[in-house]
Amino acid sequence: MTDKINLVDLEKNILEHHYNDKVVSVNDHCLRIAINKNNTFPWHRHNRTDELFIVLEGNLRIEFENGEFVDLFPNDTYCIKSGIIHRTIAIGRTVNLCFESDEEDTEYIEFNE
């Protein structure tokens, strides 16, 4: 049995410009919470697993290597299929959840813009 976790209580006291931590594991996956302020995460991909984003607060932009992007706002969700090169950009303060494999599967990509 796990303890009850309130996501609002969890995030409201975090003041760092970049915070990313596991909330709970579910079988071989985990739920992570990320809190960012005007932060760009490096280009990367996950070769063995999809990645699901759920935005709770703010504007999270996901950019793709082909120049396309998707803007996510509160209550938006988006799934990135495995192997897709992408990066996330927090526009202002954002809070998002990410459901992904518990196994580390991030490959960072040198990408000339």
Question: Topology of this structure?
Answer:
Layout: H1 7-12, E1 18-26, E2 29-37, E3 44-46, E4 51-64, E5 69-72, E6 77-80, E7 86-101, E8 106-108
Antiparallel strand pairs: 1-2, 2-7, 3-8, 4-5, 4-6, 4-7
| Largest sheet: number of strands, sense, barrel closure | 6 strands, antiparallel
Integer-rounded radius of gyration: 14 Å
**SSE topology string:** HEEEEEEEE
Mean pLDDT: 92
Counted by DSSP, the helix tally is 1
- The portion of residues forming beta strands comes to over 45%
Poorly predicted parts: none
Overall body shape: globular
Query: How many DSSP E strands?
Result: 8
The end-to-end span amounts to 47 Å
Helix share, percent? under 10%
InterPro entries: Cupin_2, PKS_Associated_Protein, RmlC-like_jellyroll, RmlC_Cupin_sf
Pfam family, one: Cupin_2
Protein name: Cupin domain-containing protein
Organism: Flavobacterium aureirubrum
What's this, in brief?
The chain has 113 residues and is mostly beta strands.
Characterization of this structure:
This protein has 113 residues and is mainly beta. 5% of the residues lie in helices and 55% in strands. The chain contains 1 helix and 8 strands; from the N terminus they run H-E-E-E-E-E-E-E-E. The strands form 2 sheets. Strands 1, 2, 4, 5, 6 and 7 form a 6-stranded antiparallel β-sheet that branches. The chain has a two-stranded antiparallel sheet with strand order 3-8. The longest helix is centred in the first third of the chain and has 6 residues. The radius of gyration is 14 Å and the shape is globular. The protein starts with 6 loop residues before the first helix and ends in a 5-residue tail after the last strand.
